[in-house]
Amino acid sequence: MKYWNRSDSGVTRMDVRKLFRSFRYAWNGIAHVAAAEQNFRIHIMAALSVSGAGWITGLSTAEWIVLIILFGGMLALELMNTAIERVVDLVSSEHHPLAGQAKDAAAGAVLIFAAASILIGCMIFIPKWINLLF
Ligand SMILES: Nc1ncnc2c1ncn2[C@@H]1O[C@H](COP(=O)(O)OP(=O)(O)OP(=O)(O)O)[C@@H](O)[C@H]1O
């Protein structure tokens, strides 16, 4: 999708309306998944809870950056998972092994990222909590 149009003077200008329309479509996608998918709402709650714990515990800038990457990655992956589910349902209304494999592979990607996020979260928080306790 191009946001730069060549005007009569030869100068390339950004199509701002088109840009905002793209943002609106992306926002609609996020709002749809948030309304339709319980897992997405669970991830948002988890991100808010971990942020609260991080604020109380006290994290470095680098640790916040890591958490923000994990939150963003997790939510983005959940959106991709839903996109794959929708496309699979669209192209194959009947039961098909490939449809099941596509959905399961997408769900597996979410699971792997969630497991890695939990592991990294433990590596950040547990030593700090041990220091606070002893
Ligand atoms: N068309 C299909 N053909 C074969 N297996 C399917 C098909 N649709 C779903 N499945 C199997 O059933 C499982 C659950 O499918 P479903 O569409 O409910 O996905 P889900 O991950 O539970 O989605 P949601 O998060 O929306 O509940 C899939 O992971 C897959 O193994």
UniProtKB/TrEMBL annotation:
Q: Name one Pfam family in it.
A: DAGK_prokar
Active-site residues (renumbered):
78
Q: What remark does the entry make about the cofactor?
A: Mn(2+), Zn(2+), Cd(2+) and Co(2+) support activity to lesser extents.
Q: Which residues cross the membrane?
A: 105-126
Q: Which cofactor does it need?
A: Mg(2+)
What residues bind substrate, as annotated?
78
Identify this protein by name: Diacylglycerol kinase (ATP)
Q: Which organism is it from?
A: Bhargavaea ginsengi
